[in-house]
Amino acid sequence: MLIDGKDTDQIAADDRGLLYGDGLFETIAVHDGVPQLWLQHMARLQRDCARLGIIPPAVELLYSEAHHLCAGQSRAVLKIIITRGSGGRGYRAPEPAAPRRVLSLHPWPAYPDHYPEQGIRVRLCAMRLGSNPRLAGIKHLNRLEQVLARAEWDDPGIGEGLLLDGEGRLVEGTMSNVFLVRDGRLQTPLLDACGVAGVMRECVLELARQGGIACEVTRLGLDDVAAADEMFVCNSVIGLWPVCQFEQQPLAAGPLTRRLQQAIGALTHA
Amino acid sequence: MLIDGKDTDQIAADDRGLLYGDGLFETIAVHDGVPQLWLQHMARLQRDCARLGIIPPAVELLYSEAHHLCAGQSRAVLKIIITRGSGGRGYRAPEPAAPRRVLSLHPWPAYPDHYPEQGIRVRLCAMRLGSNPRLAGIKHLNRLEQVLARAEWDDPGIGEGLLLDGEGRLVEGTMSNVFLVRDGRLQTPLLDACGVAGVMRECVLELARQGGIACEVTRLGLDDVAAADEMFVCNSVIGLWPVCQFEQQPLAAGPLTRRLQQAIGALTHA
Hints:
- 2 copies of one chain form a homodimer.
- By secondary structure, the first copy, chain A, is of the alpha+beta class.
- Chain A is built from 8 helices and 16 strands.
- Chain A is about 30% helix and about 35% strand.
- In chain A, the strands form 2 sheets. In chain A, strands 8, 9, 10, 11, 12, 13, 14, 15 and 16 form a 9-stranded mixed beta sheet that branches. A 6-stranded antiparallel beta sheet of chain A has the order 2-1-7-6-4-5.
- In chain A, strand 12, helix 6 and strand 13 form a beta-alpha-beta unit.
- The longest helix of chain A has 15 residues, at about 40-50.
- The two termini of chain A are about 25 Å apart.
């Protein structure tokens, strides 16, 4: 773990990341020592920092530290946290703030091998996401909703839980974005009120554009899920997992899901 | 600063308080070495921990550490953070979790002396609070909304900003709860969808009950503010501040505000 470039696993206890969740993070797959989709993660990190008014560290610095940490790792997860740094009286941030960076390396998670092929079972979470357009899409550190949603089940046979907003609209999974396939068209929720705009979600949207696959980024509800032919979830670490069952609804990975899954595999294990 | 009883200002960088805002806090006024409204703060801390599924530290332990830190302090602020502790893979918490406690002492804030007597000017924040009944009322560590709201102004003549929810209902100030007085009755927002149920808010409600003052805890909007005779904000550190101006609306501290202000002064400087 590197905190502001220093090899330590301790952080100042007055860091605003701890005090207020005043920061954001990226979770990045590492293959053969190389952080995958680096440019996309850096673009999102910079965009999110701008939205929170945090001055991001130089990308060259992050690149150098990331590669130092990842060297020799065949398969791992790199997490980058950027906080607004220490201090300030109350919610008001110090002027100027001194943002802090935390880079940490983690073992590749032990998800069941059959998830990519056979798909996962997915539940509907009771927790509803609050809406705030100012925070929508940002991968910020205020993640209590996800923590409480993930605490709703401990059945190891369930691979993910879907979250609705307060109006019952589909938003995302606890740790993933969600796509539907209906009549050969892709659909994914518009994230203008809540949710995290994942890097892998962007990749899927870009692959669809390149592949001439019709895609709607729109408001979706449980009726759309019920009408879907296929469903999948995605994030930077898992890639793409088909959904084989949502609550009592059986689903199967169809041609569009498999096509995108292959394309993502090619993209992230290059 | 004491972290799990140890005199240090560094915390494990894998603490879930940093990673996800997975925890809560109390901000407590200290007078003559004594943390004020201790029982009320401990009751709220235990209630909030239960709602988040965090096992709180023993109150006797917190009491002992708090008194150790506060000894000899004529006037200070004690902050207690409880997090779910380190670890877990992703949002899922470790079983069992090992909650962590961070007690820190801070200088008494340098608010202008005339605030309690002459009142403060208050603005309306553009930021709207997201609604989530599961988190409503809890003083949790997910405070980006407050950080961004407080960043909306730097005019030192403005003492507080009021926050509405997504439906335009009045909720609270960025760091305080808000009360209106109308026709001799107290009104304060119902906090069932968002907001922090402050300890001082509870004290005001209790003082009103004891004093036979009619009080409505209800849904309020800007029309209620416009119709108000008096307005005040409160928290554990500032006590009660009258509002002398909200945006362009002049207000004056009337008899009910002064009566409650005196009662709170007697309660907290005992």
